[in-house]
Write a structure and sequence with these properties.
This protein is of the alpha/beta class. 32% of the residues lie in helices and 23% in strands. It is globular.
């Protein structure tokens, strides 16, 4: 997210009755922190999931929800006059169908028929419902009319199913709004950026592996932000349940060795490298060709060997890119981060505590301290990962400018 890009922009957020309605709170909070003027329109069913008071506290004003509330103006018209962009997140099958066929029976569906600004729909629902013929036909109809439809994310759904249908993360929603408002920047234009993200999986046998809980959200947010700033971005991703960031080349890998090979294949062609992946440090010396059975065994001994040190290898490239790493620690955070910074020859490291439940691997938020090669520290409060990505890219741009001044 570009600092100041959304400052003063007028955005309407529509919230409908799906379990993902709670995620709209983070979206609204992120937009408000970015300086946007935000108005929220909730359906009656949305209020079954999130109370109006939550959004009223976030935007510092009333939430629009009642067609028949006493007002001096016609609210659906005033919303249209206010909005520079509209996003409905989550967008249920119900609101999608209403919008596609011109049904106006509540405030949000009525306002949607009046908006002339860019409208973004972020569908979120069960995979089978999403894939049904009526919903797909309605989405195609809206797309043909110029409504931007965001691709739902993949993962575990509220019903317990696994599949496509999750609301995209906040970074993706904000990026879509920025694109709609035409606020993309060109500060990284002409630069090639390589990002790693997600976990790696080191197989024990055909059905088991060693891994970690990394969701890939931080790396994906960084790739999306770098692309939004005009960079030519390649994202080497381990197994995650996230949609591809717009304008980013995505290379999918499984193991640390595969990620290492994908990164090394781009040696000498990169200006900035950001190692945000949670790469497994160890892999089994031998992986069984068949499922390991417990029959006749009370114990199983695994012999492990080190995986390739991807980020240290990048730091040794000639020509050398600007190299950024992460220190995901559970104790002595800053001491371990500074040690990693020196040992691997990095230009910048982002230290974050992954033992906490409110930030880290699987959350939509993070709290980091940036440390550069001079030892300068910059501490940041808890922010959405989209905001963290913006802070890291800002610091990268400062280091790039300093390097150009010094003739590096």
């Amino acid at each position: 997210m570009d600092d100041g890009a959304l400052n003063g922009r007028r955005i309407v957020v529509g919230v409908t009755g799906g379990i993902a309605a709670y995620k709209a709170c983070d979206l609204v909070s992120t937009l408000v922190k970015a300086g946007a003027q935000v108005r929220v329109v909730m359906t009656r069913n949305a209020e079954r999931f999130v109370g109006r008071l939550t959004f009223e506290a976030l935007i510092g004003g009333p939430v629009s929800h009642d067609m028949w509330a006493e007002r001096a103006d016609m609210e659906h018209i005033s919303l249209a006059d206010f909005a520079e962009a509209v996003i409905v997140a989550p967008a249920t099958a119900n609101i999608i169908g209403k919008y596609a066929h011109g049904i106006a029976d509540d405030l949000l569906s009525t306002a949607l028929l009046v908006f002339t600004c860019p409208v973004i729909m972020a569908p979120a629902m069960n995979t089978r419902m999403l894939g049904s013929a009526p919903v797909q036909a309605n989405l195609r109809l809206l797309s043909e009319r110029g409504v931007r439809i965001l691709e739902p994310a993949e993962g575990r759904l509220a019903c317990g199913d696994e599949g496509v249908g999750r609301l995209p993360d906040t970074a993706t929603l904000v990026e879509a709004l920025e694109d709609a408002l035409g606020v993309a920047s060109d500060s990284l234009a002409g630069l090639r950026v390589l990002v790693t993200a997600g976990p790696t999986r080191e197989p024990l046998d055909p059905v088991r592996f060693l891994s970690n809980p990394s969701s890939g959200k931080m790396g994906y947010a960084l790739a999306a932000e770098a692309a939004r700033r005009g960079g030519a971005v390649t994202l080497v991703s381990g197994p995650v349940a996230l949609s591809d960031p717009r304008g980013v080349e995505v290379v999918r890998v499984g193991s640390a060795e595969e990620m290492h090979e994908a990164v090394q294949a781009r040696a000498g062609t990169v200006d900035v490298f950001i190692g945000a992946a949670a790469v497994a440090d160890w892999r089994p010396v031998e992986a069984s060709d068949h499922k390991l059975k417990k029959t006749g065994r009370e114990e199983l001994t695994l012999r492990l060997q080190r995986t390739p040190d991807i980020i240290a290898g990048v730091a040794a490239w000639e020509p050398r890119p600007l190299v950024v790493g992460f220190a995901a620690e559970t104790e002595e955070l800053l001491a371990h981060a500074e040690e990693k910074l020196r040992a691997k020859g990095l230009d910048l490291i982002a230290a974050n505590d992954v033992s906490r439940l409110d930030v880290g691997f699987t959350t939509d938020a993070n709290e980091i301290t940036l440390i550069d090669a001079t030892g300068t520290r910059s501490e940041f409060p808890i922010m959405s990962k989209a905001e963290v990505a913006g802070a890291i890219l800002d610091r990268i741009e400062e280091l790039l400018a300093r390097g150009r001044e010094s003739g590096r």
